[in-house]
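Weekly structure sync, notes
Attendees: PL (lead), two postdocs, one rotation student
Agenda item 3: pending single-chain targets
PL asked that the sequence for the first pending target be pasted directly into the notes so everyone works from the same version. It is reproduced below exactly as submitted, 254 residues in total.
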Amino acid sequence: MARTESQSHDKFAGRWFWRYASPAAFFPLAGKLEKLCWVIAAVLTAVGLYIGFFVAPTDAQQGEVYRVIFIHVPAAWMAMVIYLAMAFWSGTGLVLGTRLSFMMSHALAPTGAMMAVVALVTGSLWGRPTWGTYWVWDARLTSTLILFFLYVGYMALAASFDDKKKGDRASALIALVGAINVPIIYFSVKWWNTLHQGSSVRPGSSSMAATMLTAMMVMTFAFWAYAIAAALHRLRTQVIEREREASWLKEAIK
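Predicted structure, written out during the meeting:
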């Protein structure tokens, strides 16, 4: 019985995937999801910033400057998560040959690069009063900078090909190879002696005050919603560019 239910679930998931694997099928759904995610992102950002800057207590050691973590930490998390999502969609595109998978990967890249920049800038602003300098060649900072360069390299390579299919495949290889940098970023504070502090949020436990943790998690979900909305917007733009002659698209954008 369990085997039958599992097979039924797999068949349903497979049908759902292939149903929306084509640009024509996913385009209208992406438009609806994009609008919803923009609203969620706006609401959660307002709530998260209010809790983080006006409700959460002042840190006993770092004072008010610690509040930058409510932007820095979610941005750093998203920079890593988005790159892994890029690698996933790139791999899916290479294996299954689905155009939409490559387009999804391309749509994620600018937001991932932006998140990496936000993480680096806010980290520097946090580091100045904490470490006495805006930048050190700390293992986590350096690997995050490498992540930003991987994003830039991915986008540059994808844009350098006139043949979109060749650009898709070439940039996908960067996404897959570069994914090895993500666990290096995450585990860098454990593997090397660095100035960067360890994680205050761990599965099943946290060393943060409840209101601080709440603000951080709300901002994390806000960044998630923003990333999804921005990616879907770029995805729809790519579909319009690549499928501009398709009759279905002319009907969809009327």
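Discussion points:
- Residues 32-55+63-196+209-252 form one domain.
- The CA atoms of residues 88 and 201 lie 25 Å apart.
Action: rotation student to compare against the earlier draft before next sync.
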